[in-house]
Every structure is written in structure tokens, then in C-alpha cells.
Amino acid sequence: MSEPRTERFDTRTQFQQELRSLLARARVTLDLFDPDFALFTLGTPETDAELRRFLHAGGTLRLAMHESAWLERNAPRFLRLLRDYSHRIECRVTPRGLRQLTDSFAIADATHVVRRFHSDHLRGGAAFDAPDEADLPRERFNAIWAESLPGLHPTVTGL
Predict the structure, then answer these.
(1) pLDDT at residue 154 greater than cutoff 80
(2) What is the secondary structure of 66-101 as a DSSP string?
(3) What is the mean pLDDT of residues 136-149?
(4) I want to staple 68 with a disulfide (CB 3.0 to 4.6 A). Which of 26, 55, 138, 152 is the partner?
(5) Could you report the per-residue pLDDT of 55-101, keeping only the tens digit for each?
(6) Would you give the distance in Å from CA 46 to the centre of its chain?
(7) What is the pTM of this model?
């Protein structure tokens, strides 16, 4: 493992650059939480290629969100990825009682994390090769995941 590296960001470009760095480092697990994933570029060709590499190598992807409508309308590549790798991707939607959660984060291999402090703003931080920095977001994700229900299925009927 490399020396821990932390970065701060406050622009869309910086946030998305840190996400690309996180995806490139992901090997086994990738856990993402965001109210709607509108800023996560999940539908771009570059992100699609990186996620396909990750999933093809045996990784597992879990997404927790408040609403799936943005992905359903604006990320057809991600929906194809979900269909192609439905055995490695699981998406869940939070119940009404968790809709007040407003942060946004991505965790790779319990070692790398990119986090926006509030989903309405771009200010946040990234930590790579820093398992201690990923501990709290990982615990939050696991708690959100445990309360959430299956959502965003590979087909219209959910089959």
C-alpha cells in the first residue's frame, strides 16, 4: 500500500477527477451513496469502461440512493451495465425515514474514499490508501444499506 494521500475539492471537475481516481483504484468492492447520482458521471463512456473493467475482474458494486429516477432517465449506459453485470451490482433505495441524509460518498475496497459533505454542494474531500479515513463512511454506508430496499432493477419488470 502507498502512503496515504488526502485532497480537498470544491468544483465539479475536481470532484469528478477524484471519483475517476477512486474507480481506477477499486479492485474488490465499490460502495456508493448519493441522493440521485446526478454528479457521479455513471452514464459516461469513461466511467462505463472503468466500471466494466472493475466488474469483469470480479468486483462488486453497491449503490444506495434516495431516488433512482435520474439514473433511469439520464444514464442508459449504466442501465446496460446493470443488465450485463446484474450478478455483481446491487442497487437499493432508502426508505422515507432516511431521506434527510444529504452527504454523498464513494468507498473503494474500504481503503479509498471520496466524500461531499452535502449533496447540494461540491465541497468535499478524498483520501486514498487511508483505511482510517474510510472507516466512518463505510459504517454509514453499511447502516444505510441495511435499512434500504431493493431498487433500480436490470429490467423494467425487476426480473
Answers:
(1) no
(2) S--HHHHHH-HHHHHHHHHTTTTEEEEE--GGGTT-
(3) 96
(4) 152
(5) 999 999 999 999 999 999 999 999 999 999 999 999 999 999 999 99
(6) 15
(7) 0.92
The stretch 122-151 carries a mean pLDDT of 95
Residue 155: exposed, middle, or buried by beta-carbon count in 10 A (0-12, 13-18, 19+)? exposed
Answer for the pair 91, 150: CB distance below 8 angstroms, yes or no: yes
Q: Which amino acid is at 14?
A: Q
